[in-house]
Amino acid sequence: MSRELAIEGGAPVRTAMLPYGRQSIDDADIAAVTEVLRGDWLTTGPKVAEFEVALARATGATHAVAVNSGTAALHAAMHALEVGPRDEVIVPSLTFAATANAVLYTGGTPVFADVEADTLLLDVDDAATRITPRTKAIVAVDYAGQPCDYRALRDLCDDKDLRLVSDACHSLGGSFEGRPVGSLADLSCFSFHPVKHITTGEGGAVTTADATLAQRARMFRNHGITTDHRQRTERGAYDYDMVELGYNYRLTDLQCALGLGQLAKLGPFVDRRRALAAGYDRAFADLSAARPLATRPSRTHAYHLYVVQLTLERLRADRAKVFAALRAENIGVNVHYRPVHLHPYYRERLGTKPGMTPVAEAAYPRLLSLPMFATMTDGDADDVVAAMGKVTEAYA
Ligand SMILES: *Cc1c(COP(=O)(O)O)cnc(C)c1O
């Protein structure tokens, strides 16, 4: 193999770009979608209810409400908890913007908390220091797919009379002390975007054990109307009540048929991700230029992402240079995430600034997400390892 970096004119480690994430769709998935296309119900039909039952079962929840994105799931969760203009909701700064945006949608104020340096999961002690008389809820983000410390979070929320929400968009298929993600908080939010564990194109869901919260989320996805089209059809009724302001956040039957097929493969999908992660862990054990994130015992990490932190002290290059060099080797690395409070919108609107969550801010320039998806081959993973070795050696 050429040791000259591809970015400097050498041969790349591989010829085709390996993406950081990708969906895994098989012929049965395609057949399930086309079958819906031939039927009567394209939306609000039986596949939606079927998908919700299967998802509730898979996540140890009593209720699942399917919506058309993970962002809609977070919005529905904030609505269900009646977050409003006088409320604060604690969120980690190291997350996708949607986690905090959902609080703004309902008029609440996101309050940013810091993360643990080794796992990059919400630091529960730091979150506790951000609680004020206005705090209504904490949103825990299972960053990269490892569940947060739900035991400490539950204790804190019970003690302070707060509601606990899990942004589980990274952790479907994970568990904490044997209990599945989706059953660990008052409300849990999932995304079925193509890079996530299972996909419906776009899509999401809220899971809960609380019938009232589930009903609020269910109405919210359908304009705040108490019944849906299928229920009225079955009853031969035309009239309905709109009792609060909702949205059209419905997931279609086509998407739910796809979701059902995908959900049936969740176990093998997560197993494959975990096997790839174990291979990366072994390969990077003595790579001093990059450290994988720490994992905690009694948790099943679902590995939406495989994140390393670059040891910049051992490199002559910054993250941007390492990123560009790996992309040139056709390794589709990515970065998750710039801390949300550092985005211009938040700085202008909420007055957030650097220094508010120092651990997340110190981690950000070191973060790199390596390719991770269920249909990645061992050869693909070998290419990632080879490229990481080649690039970090060149910049040592
Ligand atoms: C993907 C994701 C979302 C949003 O999901 P969409 O389906 O893209 O709307 C929210 N939070 C986190 C942490 C995510 O990774």
Question: Can you offer a commentary on this structure?
Answer:
38% of the residues lie in helices and 14% in strands. With 396 residues, the chain is an alpha/beta fold. Helix 3 packs across helix 7 (211-220). It starts with 26 loop residues before the first helix and ends with a helix. The model has no long low-confidence stretch (mean pLDDT 97).
What is the topology, as strand order, of the major beta sheet? 1-9-8-5-4-2-3
The succession of helices and strands, N to C, reads HHEHEHEHEHEEEEEHHHHEEEHHHEH
Major sheet: 7 strands, mixed
How does the overall form come out from the CA principal axes? Answer: globular
The Cα radius of gyration reads: 22 Å
Please state roughly what percent of the residues sit in beta strands, choosing from under 5%, 5-15%, 15-25%, 25-35%, 35-45% or over 45%: 5-15%
Describe the structure concisely for a colleague.
This protein has 396 residues and is of the alpha/beta class. It is built from 14 helices and 13 strands.
